[in-house]
Amino acid sequence: MYKAIVIGTSYGGLEALKIILSKFDNTFPVPIVIVLHIGDHNNETFVNYMNTICSLEVKEAESNEKIKAGTIYFAPPNYHLLIESDFTFSLTTDQKHNFSRPSIDILFESAAWAYSKNLIGVVLTGANSDGAMGLKIIKEFGGMIMIQSPCSALSPAMPRAALKIAKPEIKLKLEDIADKLIDLAYS
Predict the structure, then answer these.
(1) 3-state secondary structure of 50
(2) Residue 96 burial (CB count, 10 A)
(3) Catalytic residue among 80, 100, 105, 130
(4) What predicted TM-score, i.e. pTM, was given to this entire model?
(5) Which of 10, 110, 129, 152 is catalytic?
(6) Is 25 designated active site?
(7) Considering its fold, how many domains does the chain have in total?
(8) For this structure, is 10 an active site residue?
(9) Among 124, 119, 123, which Cα is nearest to 138's?
């Protein structure tokens, strides 16, 4: 049984996340933790908007916050988001990784340590390779990994890098990702 979903995205991610996250109903049993590359920009407007189109609560993750089902968490701008072994968040301002803070790889690796085989990792559209190594680590720990099909991504570099490095078996069009996550969460 899966206990968490981590998603990483960059360029084109705002639109991709709107499509995916709006499909989950308020009984969805798994927390979703997201790194969206937005640089130093505040994501409060986007989080507020997502709360209007999503049935699940959407919020920015806070340090020492206990991760709970029925919630979609976003990494705060300019902080790396990590998941601790007690299933709480921690935030750091360590140096950028893959030119990014928050880094998808850092979230994915910490989530793999915490959740092991009970984790699903997803890489969506993006213009760099962040997330590819993290997805590989999730797979090594026995978790499920998937990517947005590069041909359906606004920017295919990120899913292509993940495909090359992590070799996920599941490649889906953007509009099919939410349905697959729903199937996995209830299986």
Answers:
(1) helix
(2) 13
(3) 130
(4) 0.96
(5) 10
(6) no
(7) 1
(8) yes
(9) 119
89: CATH: 3.40.50.180
Rounded Cα–Cα distance for residues 142 and 111 (Å):
12
Does the annotation mark 130 as catalytic?
Answer: yes
Instruction: Give the integer Cα–Cα distance in Å for 116 and 95.
Output: 26
Whose structure tokens read 């919020």? Answer: 59
* CA gap 6, 162 in Å, rounded: 14
Can you give the pLDDT of all 187 residues of the chain as single tens digits? 899 999 999 999 999 999 999 999 999 999 999 999 876 667 788 888 999 999 999 999 999 999 999 999 999 998 999 999 999 999 998 888 877 889 999 999 999 999 999 999 999 999 999 999 999 999 999 999 999 999 999 999 999 999 999 999 899 999 999 999 999 999 8
* Nearest C-alpha neighbor of 97 from the set 86, 87, 84, 108: 108
CA distances from 156 to 61, 136, 148 (A): 27, 18, 9
Domain extent at residue 96:
4-185
Residue tagged active-site, from 37, 100, 129, 152? 37
pLDDT at 154: 95
pLDDT at 41: 65
CB neighbours of residue 27 within 10 Å: 11
Q: Running DSSP on this structure, what letter comes out for residue 169?
A: S
Q: Could you give the strand order of the β-sheet that contains 4-9, starting from the edge strand earlier in sequence? A: 57-60, 71-74, 32-36, 4-9, 119-123, 144-148, 170-172
Provide the token pair at 78. Answer: 């300019």
